[in-house]
Amino acid sequence: MDARPTVNPRLFGFVGGSHGPWRILESTAIVGEPLSEATFLDIVPGEPPHGPGCSWVLRGVTSHDRYVMRSEKTELVRRQQGLGRPDCTLAALIPIRKKAAWWALTQDERRDVFEAQSEHIGIGMRYLPAVARRLHHCRDLSRAEPFDFLTWFEFSPANASAFDDLLLALRASPEWTYVDREADVRLERAGA
Amino acid sequence: MDARPTVNPRLFGFVGGSHGPWRILESTAIVGEPLSEATFLDIVPGEPPHGPGCSWVLRGVTSHDRYVMRSEKTELVRRQQGLGRPDCTLAALIPIRKKAAWWALTQDERRDVFEAQSEHIGIGMRYLPAVARRLHHCRDLSRAEPFDFLTWFEFSPANASAFDDLLLALRASPEWTYVDREADVRLERAGA
């Protein structure tokens, strides 16, 4: 058999429920249906177990860059810092789904909306290294997932209002007219 | 629960074994490990069952365009025809994996290799509508898959040598220096 039943090593499960290292402070539906209620979040590598006390499970894989050009990548890598910094006790999980019209665009059209019109990379760059970020793709997983992307952000309490500014700028951009579901889950490291 | 255990509607399984509507004429390893032996191929929507007589299973999802620009897409759509034409009794399944170096390139670098250097779209265009094609992505599925892409081609016996020319041109391109596994499975519609 050439089928290898091992999990994609870039797959992560985000499990909302009654336990986990992140306490959910607030969960808002920005566009569309809300997530069900949960008090804690666990982030697990691989296929998440469906345990008791689990309210929702979202899955995503980290992957290669879709829009970034080499010059932008060089600058992003120079400025960004990793997840898990001790002072970054706050986090946000922003799951997003985009309309079919977005996916029907060609690469040049998506890049035009994403950066030329919306400065998605440019806006994000202004908040580095304050806001650390990891993007997960859900659209091409084996199961039908409720979102296309899950973005995980970590920042310190001192940068919480800067993070809100970042979201305001992105949500006001032309790219966001293609968003048809968006949730916003705010979290605090449990024990922080 | 927000987890929906339904399969991705764009997922297809390619099952090599002892039955199916396509008879395997030849299976060659172009680069890397060969596929195990099989005599027939079945293509199933969704998650393929692991039945008896199954030698290998490959999975992939159809997805949005990654490199094509609007002007190219317009021309492709104008020229191409669908799968399943009655005279297209021959087919090929070409599973490909690309090196980590490919996935580390940024979008502008990949597009440069893909089209400016390799004319991947331009070469394919010359064989339309003779060769019908459907591309499946495997890299961001939930399981670790042995290939990154599965391309399925259908053509008539009269166009079989044109199809070989298409493959020769692509395999001689700079893009193919990034390929680290490639299989080439040739098939005939069973009963044709």
Description:
The structure is a homodimer of 192-residue chains. The first copy, chain A, has 5 helices and 8 strands, in the order ββββαβαααββαβ. An 8-stranded antiparallel sheet of chain A has the order 4-1-3-2-8-5-7-6. With 192 residues, the first copy, chain A, is of the alpha+beta class. Chain A has helices at 70-79, 100-103, 107-117, 120-126, 160-171; strands at residues 11-17, 22-31, 40-45, 54-61, 90-98, 132-137, 149-155, 179-189. Chain A starts with 10 loop residues before the first strand and ends with a strand. In chain A, strand 2 (22-31) and strand 3 form a beta hairpin. Chains A and B meet through strand 4, helix 1 and helix 3 of A and strand 4, helix 1 and helix 3 of B.
Rg calc of chain A: 17 Å
The assembly state of the depicted protein chains is homodimer
Cα-to-Cα separation, first versus last residue of chain A: 48 Å
Strand order of the largest sheet of chain A: 4-1-3-2-8-5-7-6
| Shape designation of chain A | globular
> Which regions of chain A have little confidence, pLDDT < 50, spanning 5+ residues?
none
What is the helical fraction of chain A, as a range of percent?
10-25%
Class based on secondary structure composition and strand pairing of chain A:
alpha+beta
Q: What does the largest sheet of chain A look like?
A: 8 strands, antiparallel
Strand content of chain A: 25-35%
Order of secondary-structure elements of chain A = EEEEHEHHHEEHE
Largest interface: A-B, 50 and 50 residues
**Total helical segments of chain A:** 5
- Which whole number gives the mean pLDDT of chain A? 95
Count the strands of chain A?
8
